[in-house]
Design brief:
Helix content is about 90%, strand content about 0%. It is mostly helical. The chain has a domain of about 45 residues. Helix 1 crosses helix 2. The radius of gyration is 24 Å and the shape is elongated.
Length: about 80
């Protein structure tokens, strides 16, 4: 969506405010070392990926276990 369409749809203050927030975020990123920032983001992403993988495997194991227990109880 273009800047002018957003200004028309949401009002000038909302669009200008969001541009100000994004601009200040970009300005603060310039002061830090980008290599450190990228490495921190990669580490965080790998940690999240590991947690999600463990969670999915745990949920599958629990579902399988509950299904087996219910099957044994129905016999």
């Amino acid at each position: 969506m273009s800047f002018f369409k957003q200004a028309k749809k949401y009002g000038v203050t909302a669009v200008v405010g969001s541009v100000g927030v994004l601009g200040s975020a970009m300005a603060s990123a310039e002061g830090t070392d980008l290599t450190t920032t990228i490495k921190a983001a990669l580490t965080s992403g790998q940690t999240n990926y590991g947690l999600v993988t463990a969670g999915v495997i745990t949920m599958a194991a629990l579902g399988f276990g509950v299904a087996m227990i219910v099957g044994w109880l129905r016999k």
